[in-house]
Specification:
The structure is a homodimer of 356-residue chains. By secondary structure, chain A is an alpha/beta fold. Helices cover 35% and strands 13% of the residues of chain A. In chain A, helix 4 (113-120) links the parallel strand 3 (104-107) and strand 4.
Chain lengths: 356, 356
């Protein structure tokens, strides 16, 4: 043992989905958008004032905060921007969940980064068990806690709760911060954004990585009352004044301003998802009513790990979580119609092979 | 008081130098490089594969880590990359200084973010007082502590210590992590990088923001033995898997690979600094022997705040810290020869006005 080893903070990190370097694969494992970024954004990249790269970017990210505020008809003081929603959520855990010493509540089957953040910042937590239909139960969140967070739609289950459910949770949690993680909301769920004026303890978190086709830019944001946003900004400016780089800020503004492209590509993903649901159903897969850009599916007869391995052989990568209750499921991102057709062909081949 | 207010972590953030939006100013306040980024890097920006922006970037940042490792003839396992050296340093505070409960030591006059990070993560700290010549005293770092960090060259003083000084500190601190913050090292100080094989508790932190003309890309890095780097990566992957965005990774690789441009622009900044020293000396300013891209200067007769305000009127922005012991100093970044000539003209005007 080294003399300094007891000085090191020991953590078990989150495991992100693979980012294989081969290009000729069908990549349905990290819920990226199959459509390219907004053409106005990529055009802007070509015209970027490169001399600005030698300067520090705007630490307050005013242009991007302003563009997001305009999109949602909010005031700039109600928007916080970070390096993807992971950065925003990490800062939320540190800012709002680390002080009380009480456990933060989140579902047992959910985004697996929540307990990683809780452990990183030594925040106690309780996982609230989803029911057998993989639904969140509002009553589980009535007890005293140090904060509440869940995704809507939930991930990896893909299903959504209505606003009345979120209001129920908020009514029972007026003394803590309640965070709705809406990474996938644009694909068919109802946003809790309409509740931020009524509930000053509500934060809604969204991202550019899914519906806005720019996971590679790393942009996420939180929306809520200005006191919460100011507290988040104080922590951000105590961590790193300049989290958002110049290309991200400039392209982020163009991306959010291109509403038509966003609506068009989102509608296409939704149409492909609904079509894929029918195909998977016909093949004997079961899944909840996904409102996201992925389907979380299990087959009635076949083992998920076997399907996963078979698809991988065919250069189709989906995501498998080796975790309690969900180890027989695959999370399949929605690609283009062509990619999903290739997936269906491969799944049919798998079935044939199993039955022969 | 709101019912949730006791749940909020309260911090006093770092105050970054201004980033005024007006372009027609001489900006000598945040130690940016006056020369544009490497032309090969900006060319690459125009050719960027924009479809990649819809994908998550490589969470391990292998290409950039590899390019930095190649530049310094290290193994990839000895390099950690973050969103500017502020991100790297924040993670270092969390990873290596937050466990022991003992105070981390750093100088009283130094980078003002150190105590902000310590407060953010509730790490006790002790500021070790520089001597009257604004020099760090090695003996101050002999006592039991929870970690040691100082910049070399120090900021905002601008002066450097030799490697023997750093070895002295390391010899007295084998049971903690010692961090040398080398943000400015390329402008004339000796890097401690040559010591990382001898001292497995040493981390050397550098940045692209100064000598590599790309503050707008947000790239910083730490170099040290692979166990330290692995611990940092575990914390990074417990915070945000994808901190580095796609444009930064691609342009970062090109930037570090262009060694000739880096050497040429660094030499120009050093030459301008040495010339500016002569000019300032002739005007009655005193300063240490800066090995950075700034000069930390005080005038024998005139008040720093008055000079600051006068320069501002002339659209020349320098940095003034309203802090004990240094409130009569100005930190003046090294710009182009033309910018420094304009500064000298303005300082002469100031003197004339004062004497008339």
């Amino acid at each position: 043992m080294k003399p300094w080893e007891d000085k090191v903070r020991r953590v078990t990190p989150y495991t992100p989905g693979e980012q294989p370097k081969i290009k000729k694969i069908i990549k349905l494992n990290t819920n990226e958008n199959p459509y390219p970024p907004s053409p106005t954004a990529t055009k802007k990249l070509r015209e970027l004032d490169t001399d600005m790269l030698r300067r520090y970017p705007d630490p307050n990210v005013s242009d991007l905060v302003g563009a997001i505020a305009d999109f949602y008809k909010l005031d700039k003081s109600q928007v916080f921007v970070g390096v993807g929603s992971d950065d925003v959520l990490a800062m939320i855990f540190l800012t709002f969940f680390s002080e009380s010493g009480k456990p933060v509540f989140f579902p047992d089957i959910t985004y697996t980064f929540y307990d990683v953040w809780a452990n990183l910042f030594k925040i106690p937590f309780e996982r609230k068990v989803l029911n057998d239909n993989f639904e969140i139960c509002a009553e589980d969140y009535y007890e005293t806690n140090g904060g509440v967070i869940f995704p809507n739609p939930n991930a990896p289950t893909g299903t959504a709760v209505p606003l009345s459910f979120i209001e129920d949770v908020l009514e029972h949690n007026k003394d803590v911060i309640v965070v709705i993680d809406e990474a996938y909301v644009d694909f068919g769920a109802e946003s809790a954004l309409s509740l931020i004026d009524k509930y000053d303890n509500l934060l809604v978190v969204q991202t550019f990585s899914k519906s806005r086709s720019t996971a590679g830019l790393r942009i996420g944001y939180a929306m809520g009352n200005q006191e919460l946003i100011a507290a988040l900004n104080a922590v951000k400016h105590s961590y790193n004044s300049y989290t958002m780089n110049y290309p991200s800020i400039v392209l982020g503004v163009e991306t959010i301003n291109d509403r038509a492209y966003f609506e068009e590509t989102t509608a296409k993903v939704i149409a492909t998802r609904e079509n894929t649901k029918k195909e998977l159903e016909a093949l004997g897969y079961t899944f909840g009513d996904s409102k996201t850009n992925f389907i979380f599916a299990a087959h009635e007869e076949f083992d998920a790990k076997e399907i996963f391995a078979f698809l991988r052989e065919k250069a189709i990568i989906v995501r498998h979580f080796n975790a309690p209750r969900i180890s027989n499921y695959l999370r399949i991102s929605i690609g283009t119609d062509e990619e999903m057709a290739a997936l269906v062909v491969a799944l049919k081949e798998f079935e044939q092979q199993k039955r022969s």
